[in-house]
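Trying the structure run again after the queue cleared.
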Amino acid sequence: MTAAPSPHVQRFVELSVDELRARLREALDLYVTAMRYPQGTAEQRAPMWLAHMMREGWRCVAALDDQDKMAGIAYGYRGAPGQWWHEQVRRGVTEQRGAAVADLWMADYFELTELHVRPESQGHGAGAELVTRLVDGVPSAHVLLSTPEGPSRAWRLYRRLGFADVLRHYRFAGDPRPFGVLGRQLPLEAG
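Done. Tokens:
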């Protein structure tokens, strides 16, 4: 058993596609709670999460409590042209910072797609441990993620882990909120 960074987390485990599929309702409920989204959001997101599981390099890590319930989850995969997020970010970076910067960041990256920790488990290191375990051994040159703008625990976490600004105040199609896109070189411990 792994040393727990939180009284709410007992261990961290890698989940296979089949294991996450079997726990998808639980994972999506955690996502809705952590993001404070309205009820019904989980049903809208389920098809997207299922599609993501089929992408090259997909991996997932969960934090489990002493009842074997998810206290946190993180997943991602190899980013590639043709993926919605890739195309949105590439366009934004190219417009704000130029094609050379877009090429630098997006030629070889792992997309940290989802990172969520139950509110009562936040602030005890579970998020940092999830990110660290998720990207450990990833063969990509960079890791990229997007997060809503504004001061938050997420921003503090990403800054502590050495993530830098790639694109700021970007509005993804279909979402009125401004987002920051952050990135850093891999391996994580190199920074």
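The longest helix spans residues 84-97. Worth checking whether this holds up in the mutant runs.
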